[in-house]
Specification:
single chain, about 270 residues, alpha/beta, globular
């Protein structure tokens, strides 16, 4: 790599504020102006900078957030969940449970194949006076099927009612439920019922929702059932969600191989900084 090309890549990856510029990211034009003013290049076009960055694997990417778990028992809880994913107990089923929502009524941006310059247009809304609903769902790893209920509330009563539907579905098996630390999941009535009905609650570490396999399924529900829609009633929206889940369940396969290539599989994860 030539020295000018190396300079372009290094500066592009820097925060402009560290170099005395009053902005938080580079545009190609601002990057070009800085390189010329700082004397790193004598003359260069925006297109040349774009090509140099592309050829050397530097691309325009979105900033993402990450919340590290503060759970003192993070490692033990994570390994327990991974072991349930990898080696489901012979005496029962492993089921991932969570709430999805809130399901309000609004035009939702999405993507669609369209002629160039002719995107789908949705109305804009400023008032939403029809309330919200919530979906409680369970992903059965044995079959890969989703089971769900949509309700107006998501209190411990609704959650316990949903658990009872799961218990009736598999009456002779012990249920191992992977779920987060939402307070209704830990309500004394819920805990007592689970203890009396062969249901084991396996809680995620705090700030580790990514360990719940159902999160990926929720992303698909949002993408394929809601994005790009403008439902006017909750009944219409509930039907759209139900139609997608039924279509999905007809094609479901057992869930195996969770994050097999991820760094979380390393025996020393989470890695300690030196």
């Amino acid at each position: 790599m030539s020295r000018p090309a190396r300079r372009i890549c290094v500066i592009a990856r820097c925060d402009p504020r560290f170099l005395g510029r009053p902005f938080s990211c580079w545009s190609l034009a601002k990057l070009r102006d800085y390189l010329i003013e700082a004397g790193y290049v004598t003359a260069v076009s925006v297109e040349t900078i774009r090509r140099v960055l592309h050829e050397r694997g530097v691309s325009w990417q979105a900033t993402k957030t990450w919340k590290a778990s503060t759970d003192p028992d993070f490692t033990a809880k994570m390994r327990r969940i991974l072991d349930l994913y990898d080696h489901p107990p012979a005496d029962g089923r492993v089921i991932c449970v969570d709430e999805f929502g809130p399901l309000n009524l609004q035009p939702r941006p999405g993507r669609a194949w369209r002629p160039q310059g002719q995107p789908v247009r949705l109305r804009a809304t400023y008032t939403r006076d029809q309330g919200v609903r919530h979906m409680i769902a369970a992903l059965d790893l044995t079959t890969g099927r989703l089971h769900y209920r949509i309700r107006d509330r998501k209190r411990w009563r609704e959650f316990l009612y949903f658990l009872k539907t799961l218990r009736r579905r598999w009456p002779d098996q012990r249920l191992y439920l992977i779920l987060d630390n939402f307070s209704p999941h830990k309500h004394p009535e819920v805990r007592a019922w689970c203890a009396a009905n062969q249901v084991e609650l396996v809680f995620l570490p705090t700030y580790a929702s990514w360990l719940n396999w159902i999160e990926a399924e929720f992303a698909a529900v949002r993408y394929f059932a809601l994005n790009g829609t403008d439902h006017r009633t909750h009944a219409e929206q509930d039907t759209a969600i139900g139609d997608y889940i039924r279509w999905r369940n007809q094609r479901a396969r057992p869930k195996t191989g969770f994050a097999t290539g991820s760094k979380i599989r390393h025996p020393d994860y989470p890695f300690k900084a030196a």
